Amino acid sequence: MEVDKGKGEAEETRKVAEADRDTVTLKSSDGKLFEVSKEAAARLSTVLAGMIAGGSIDDNGTDLKQIGSEALENVVDYCNKHANSIPSAALISSSISFNTAPFKEPEEWERKFVDRLSHDALFDLVEAANFLGMERLLDVTCHKISEMMKGKSPDQIREVFNIKNDYTKEELEEIRQELAWAFYDD
Amino acid sequence: MPRRRPPAGLRSDEATSMVVLMEELVEEILLRFPPAEPASLVRAALVCKPWCRLISGRRFRRRFSEVHRSPPMLGYFCNLYPDAGNPNRNKDAGPVSRFFPASAAYPRHPDQANWSALDARHGRVLLRSVRGNPRISVWDPFTGERWELPPLSDTWYEDDEDHWNAAVLCAATGGGGCDHLDCRGKPFLVVYDLLVHLLVGDWLLERANLCCSET
C-alpha cells in the first residue's frame, strides 16, 4: 500500500515536472529526438496544441511516426525561429487586410528559411506542416513551391514534381491550339 | 489529424526518391498562383489529367475566387472600324467589337465583326448586331458559349436606335444570392432601357422604360 502510494506520488511529481517544462520532446519516424519550445509548438501547430492540452506529450519523446528526422528538424527549427522573431509591420498590416490580400506574404527570414531547402526537403516539410496542422508553415512552404512553378512549362513542372504525363500527344496539341495564348513564351 | 489522401498525378516508375505530394497539398499550392497570370494555371492543368480535373473543378475555381477576391481584368472590348483611316477600305465593312488584352489571356475569337459590345460583366459580354434589325446576344469570350436573345419589338428601334441600351447582369439567387466570384454557368438577366421622348409645349421630357429578359 505504502509502495503504491509512493509510486503514485512519483508519477504525480513527474507529471507536474513535465507540465512545468517549457519545451516538449518530439521523436521522428527514425527515432531521433528534438526539443522544441512548448509555447511556439502550441501556437504554431493545432495538432501539437491538442496533444499538449490533452496531456498526451511523452517526456521521453512524443512519437511522430509520419515525419522523418530531416523534416522534423526543419519543423523544430522553424518553431524556434518563430518563437524568437517579432512580427514585422508588413505581416501585421497584411493580417488586417486579410479579406483583400490573397495570402500573408512570407517574412524575410521565412523566405530564407525555405530558400535553403532542397526540393525533397521542401516537399517533406510541406507534408509535415500539413500533418501537424501548422497553417503558417504550410502557407510559407506552399508559397515557395508555387513560386518554383512560376514560368515553367508543363514538362518542367512534371520533372520537379516527378509526375508522369498521362496526356496523349493529340490531346496536348488540341489544348495548346485552343489556348495558344498560354504558351507564347514557351 | 489531417487525413492522408492518394497523390494527385501519377508517379513515374523510374524514380522513387522524390516525394509525391498529396492532392490536398497540390491544391494548396495551385491556389497561390497569381490570378493576374492565368497562363500559369493553364500550364499546370497540362501537367497531368488529375491536375486538370482539380483546376477545372468547381471546388477549386470557387476557392481560388474566394482567396483572391477581386477577379483580375483580363482585357476590354472596343467597338471600332478597323480600317477607318484607309481611303481604299471597303465602305460596306461594318464595325468590329475587338478584345484588347490586359493580361496574357486571349479569347480564341477576339474580333466580333458586325457586332458591337454594349456591356461586359462577370465574364459575359452583351453584343448587339449592327446590321438590319438589332439582335442581342450574350457571349462568354473564354468558353465561346453564346446565347441569342429573342428579337426586340419594332417599337424599340424604329425611331432612333441611340435611345435604348442594355446591360447583362448575374441573376443567380440560390443560397442567399451570388457574390459574383464565379458566375459562370449561372442564370443571367438582360435589362433593356428605352428612353421615350415626349414633347409637351416647349419641354422635352424623358421617360425610361425598363424591361428584363431572363435566361
From TrEMBL, chain A:
Residues 23-84 form the SKP1 component POZ domain. GO terms for biological process: jasmonic acid mediated signaling pathway; protein ubiquitination; ubiquitin-dependent protein catabolic process. The keyword Cytoplasm does not apply. Keywords: Ubl conjugation pathway. PANTHER family: SKP1 (PTHR11165). Part of a SCF (SKP1-cullin-F-box) protein ligase complex. This is SKP1-like protein.
UniProtKB/TrEMBL annotation, chain B:
This is F-box domain-containing protein. Pfam families: F-box (PF00646). Residues 23-62 form the F-box domain. It comes from Digitaria exilis.
